[in-house]
């Protein structure tokens, strides 16, 4: 497989680190891949931006840092402003329509998706925004199977929250259909 | 400051990834340091071992992978068996007495601490085992201030759980006193 370098970015409360960890675990535990997941904290963290990197591959990964992601997810304007220049040419840039106004052209496929809007309208709980985002990412890229994400969630969260997370994941998958690469 | 390379290891449900993330966030957000936090998933993850790496420094960190930790925490026998050979000579090896029997001599300070036992006796909730462990780690090393850990927890968990986490952190700090480097 192609090696996927993904950066999830947003603000502290949006669950981007959790999304990255869930994706990495799904890839390794249930899709037989190799993954490395990193948070580099620094000035960005103090400024309120959170960034979480995942590399997914079917071979050994020696260098865990993502310099140029081929998939960049930005859930806030600040994260977008900070990270859009690093996207790999020909990559995929996913932003949330509610939070990000994309102003520059990048040499990448650019997808503005109403993730937050749909989560609030159809589920009403901002806490699953990250899972919906994950659904859109895997829907557009085929990185891991939705079932693998659900198996990770089953290990991580109480049964009573599973249904809501499943709905959020499906919502992201559904929203991604309009934008399939 | 010396550059600290820490590896937390254990099994899936023990919260070692969370402990690593909390430590990294505390260092960056409240102690003005730089941190990188990584999970490398692979065969170990499928076998049930979880490993989470943190590097803490007061300067830029270029290479985020920990090859030889100077602080290695092992919360299961399997994690100990797998990772004890990588400890940096002169480092600090912390194991939980309940889960790990240390059989080999390593060129490091070796501390077997009854973390789990004390958590169960004094708090009764295994979920804060990782926070107690974190208390012991910072108590022995002075890596970050306990207040910084609490500030991260205040951002992450519901108010109703804060008290229990504070107790677990204090318990770890207390237990570490007997073993201060």
Give the helix/strand layout.
The structure is a homodimer of 181-residue chains.
Chain A: E1 4-11, H1 16-30, E2 34-41, H2 43-47, E3 49-57, E4 71-74, H3 77-83, E5 91-96, E6 108-113, H4 115-122, H5 129-141, H6 146-156, H7 159-177
Parallel strand pairs in A: 1-4, 4-5, 5-6
Antiparallel strand pairs in A: 1-3, 2-3
- Tell me the structural class of chain A: alpha/beta
Molecular shape of chain A: globular
Mean pLDDT of chain A: 92
Largest interface in this structure: A-B, 25 and 25 residues
How far the N terminus sits from the C terminus of chain A, by CA atoms, comes to 16 Å
Radius of gyration of chain A: 15 Å
Q: Biggest sheet of chain A, open or closed, and with what strands and sense?
A: 6 strands, mixed
* Low-pLDDT segments, ≥5 res of chain A: none
Oligomeric state, counting identical vs distinct chains: homodimer
Biggest sheet: strand arrangement of chain A: 2-3-1-4-5-6
Q: How large is the share of residues in beta strands of chain A?
A: 15-25%
Number of strands of chain A: 6
Percent helix among the residues of chain A?
40-55%
Helix-strand pattern of chain A, N to C?
Answer: EHEHEEHEEHHHH
Tally of helical segments of chain A: 7
What does this structure look like?
Two copies of one chain form a homodimer. The first copy, chain A, is an alpha/beta fold and 181 residues long. Helix content of chain A is 43%, strand content 23%. Chain A has seven helices and six strands; from the N terminus they run βαβαββαββαααα. Chain A has a six-stranded mixed β-sheet, sandwiched between helices. In chain A, helix 1 (16-30) crosses helix 5 (129-141) and helix 5 crosses helix 7. In chain A, 50% of the residues are buried. The interface between A and B is medium-sized, with 25 and 25 residues.
């Amino acid at each position: 497989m192609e090696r996927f370098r993904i950066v999830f970015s947003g603000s502290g409360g949006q669950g981007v680190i959790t999304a990255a960890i869930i994706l990495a675990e799904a890839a390794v535990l249930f899709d037989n891949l190799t993954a490395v997941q990193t948070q580099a904290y620094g000035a960005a963290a103090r400024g309120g931006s959170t960034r979480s990197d995942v590399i997914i591959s079917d071979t050994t990964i020696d260098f865990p840092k993502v310099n140029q992601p081929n998939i960049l997810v930005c859930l806030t304007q600040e994260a977008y402003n900070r990270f859009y220049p690093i996207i790999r040419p020909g990559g995929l840039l996913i932003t949330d329509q509610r939070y990000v106004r994309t102003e520059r052209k990048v040499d990448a496929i650019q997808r503005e998706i109403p993730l937050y809007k749909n989560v609030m309208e159809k589920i009403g709980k901002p806490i699953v925004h990250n899972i919906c985002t994950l659904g859109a990412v895997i829907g557009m890229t085929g990185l891991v199977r939705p079932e693998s994400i659900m198996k990770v969630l089953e290990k991580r969260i109480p049964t009573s929250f599973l249904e809501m997370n499943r709905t959020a994941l499906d919502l992201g998958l559904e929203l991604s259909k309009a934008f399939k690469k």
